[in-house]
Design goal:
Helix content is 44%, strand content 19%. The chain contains 20 helices and 20 strands. The protein is flat, with a radius of gyration of 32 Å. It starts with a helix and ends with a helix.
Length: 610
């Protein structure tokens, strides 16, 4: 038994990360501390000066862990990683995990290549980005290869020059073949310089030179070459339109602002590279009302930049960072970048205008998605709350598990388990069970078997089953409920169990709980959630049962045929699609399957005609 007050005495006076857990061993909060002993003890002292978030969280803390680090910087990095990994309920959480592409020019090579990458390495190559419009980045690189015939191969030049013949790209006019000295190094580097000018938005000189050359070809009546240049100019103009760069004079910087409501926030980021805006993106963040605006933007900065490939010189914010973390975050990002990073909260001038513009865009995005987010919350978290109130449960419901049995006249019996967390399906936690010990159509015994196996694995701390549900919904009535209660009693688990019952037309009618029927209003979000769960567990069981039945059918027929092993069995089913079509096939039809020979084809043909 974890004794919080005794464990508090053992805390070291060192920097580190602390992890708060609830009674089901779920991680509900991760924090960092300069002094673990002082920081963690604060949570369990007088609640008079505590925030609403802490007052709400502390009653749910049943135990805690901590990890000691050498420095506060290490604690900050570890905190970011753990929040990303576990998404604790009481932490502000960045919901998006977007990684943007860069255009990479390998200027560190004698004959540079140009391609798209999502990794920003310290390898002396040139990187352009991050680019929020991945299709625009792809189009740019494709046009560069089309116009200037930049090599795509990984040959090491000049070491490998002349060792092999030019590749296919040269023969189809997409490479200038520096690997065979078909272009001088000076000419090739001129191509690279022009390509970089295009990427950076300096189109005017390129187009001017191309138009001049196009006119010369036209005067010389070389209309074919003139047409190629005309098409190249059109391609460059289309790229120029897609880039939509606006001069800002801010060098490399990010502008960050946000709008919030319904315990959610939309953060808008403008990316400025080389003094020009290269793109913008919005991110959804969970941001409970009890968190200040500074706390929201601080958590976003920590989580966003701890996972991004590029960190700009200046980060311009609509709100200041939390005072006690500002210096540490600045130091962390400066170390990651390898040069100084500064944070600015402008009060006037061009920077403030950009912040206000970002904020306006965040508000517009929220107006677009805010109502949807509100409805989504009502049909998920709100629906769970309705069910909790209807059942009269005191404990908050986070995880719901539902079970069903599927068989046909007792054959190929299977069980299914579906999981909903915060009113949403968590498909990674779905589980399938083949009934092993029960023969015939005995749903009660079959349900007991799958539940016993499920909770036995929880007791053994199996990573796929160690989370316990807050509520169990059985697809059925009293029989299924009793099966679940019997097994829970075996393991001494106190988990409420409901049955989901249907009407005469096989539609969801309501819940049975403690031998009473609980009727939820048909138009309520709680009733709709129960219906979705019942349909989902039934669908999952039926699909699994169908696969098992089909597999058994295939085994019972094809595997009994001489000369037909697993490889040929699969090939026959892939080719014909069903046992019936295989049965009807002639020897010549069977020989159309590459894996079949005359003997095996005759064996199949004879088997179905004996």
């Amino acid at each position: 038994m974890f004794d919080i007050h005794e464990e508090l005495k053992k805390l070291p006076q060192k920097p580190g990360v602390y992890i708060m857990k609830d009674k089901d061993d779920n991680i509900i909060y991760v924090g960092k501390a300069v002094n673990l002993k002082n920081r963690v003890r604060q949570y369990f002292q007088s609640s008079k000066n505590q925030t609403a978030k802490v007052r709400s969280m502390v009653p749910n803390i049943k135990e805690f862990e901590y990890i000691v680090t050498d420095t506060e910087m290490e604690a900050l990095i570890l905190e970011c990683n753990l929040i990303k990994k576990h998404s604790p309920y009481y932490n502000i959480r960045l919901k998006d995990d977007k990684m943007y592409p860069y255009i990479k020019v390998t200027v560190n090579e004698d004959y540079p290549r140009i391609f798209i990458t999502r990794k920003h390495l310290k390898d002396k190559a040139k990187y352009f980005g991050p680019i929020t419009d991945a299709s625009a980045a792809k189009d740019t690189v494709e046009i560069i290869h089309k116009i200037w015939k930049i090599r795509k191969c990984n040959r090491v030049l000049p070491r490998d020059i002349g060792k092999e013949r030019p590749c296919l790209n040269y023969h189809i006019g997409k490479c200038s073949a520096p690997c065979n000295n078909f272009i001088t190094k000076e000419e090739y580097n001129d191509y690279i310089k022009s390509a970089i000018d295009l990427i950076e938005g300096r189109h005017e000189d390129i187009i001017k030179d191309m138009r001049k050359q196009m006119e010369e070809y036209a005067e010389a009546l070389d209309f074919e070459k003139a047409a190629v240049l005309r098409d190249n100019i059109k391609s460059i103009l289309s790229i120029a339109e897609k880039q939509k760069m606006a001069n800002s004079g801010l060098g490399d910087s990010d502008i960050i602002a946000f709008a919030r409501a319904f315990d959610e926030a939309v953060v808008q980021v403008f990316f400025i590279r080389g003094g020009k805006m290269t793109g913008r993106e919005h991110f959804f963040v969970s941001a409970p009302d009890e968190n200040t605006r500074s706390e929201v933007i601080t958590e976003f900065v920590k989580q966003f930049y701890s996972g991004t490939a590029f960190i700009p010189k200046e980060i311009i914010l609509s709100e200041p960072l939390v005072d006690e973390e500002s210096e540490l975050i600045t130091e962390m990002l400066s170390q990651m970048k390898g040069s100084k990073v500064t944070f600015t909260v402008p009060q006037k001038g061009e920077k403030q205008k950009l912040v206000l513009l970002a904020e306006k865009n965040a508000v517009i995005t929220f107006e677009q998605f805010g109502e949807k987010m509100k409805r989504d919350k009502e049909r998920t978290v709100g629906a769970v709350l309705e069910i909790q109130k209807a059942l009269g449960l005191q404990k908050d419901i986070v995880r719901i598990e539902s079970y069903d049995i599927s068989n046909i006249q007792g054959t190929s019996s299977v069980g299914s388990m579906v999981v909903f967390e915060y009113g949403r399906p968590k498909k990674s936690d779905y589980r399938k069970f083949k009934i092993k010990t029960v023969h015939g159509a005995n749903d009660f015994a079959s349900m007991e078997e799958i539940l016993r196996r499920r909770f036995d694995r929880a007791v053994k701390d199996d990573s796929g089953f160690n989370k316990l549900p807050d509520l169990i919904l059985m697809d059925g009535g009293i029989i299924q409920i009793n099966a679940a209660k019997n097994i829970l009693s075996e393991f001494s688990f106190d988990i409420p169990v409901c049955g989901m019952i249907k009407d005469d037309r096989h539609r969801t009618r309501g819940l049975i709980f403690e031998e009473n029927e609980i009727k939820l209003p048909y138009n309520s979000e709680g009733f709709k959630l129960v219906t979705r769960i019942q349909d989902e567990v039934h669908r999952f069981a039926i699909e699994f049962h169908r696969k098992v039945r089909e597999k058994n059918l295939i085994h019972s027929v094809l595997d009994d045929i001489p000369l037909i092993g697993e490889k040929r069995r699969k090939a026959l089913m892939k080719h014909f699609g069903s046992i019936e079509k295989i049965r009807e096939a002639e020897v010549s039809d069977l020989l159309e399957v590459p894996e079949m020979n005359i003997k095996s084809a005759e064996s199949v043909y004879s088997f179905f005609r004996e």
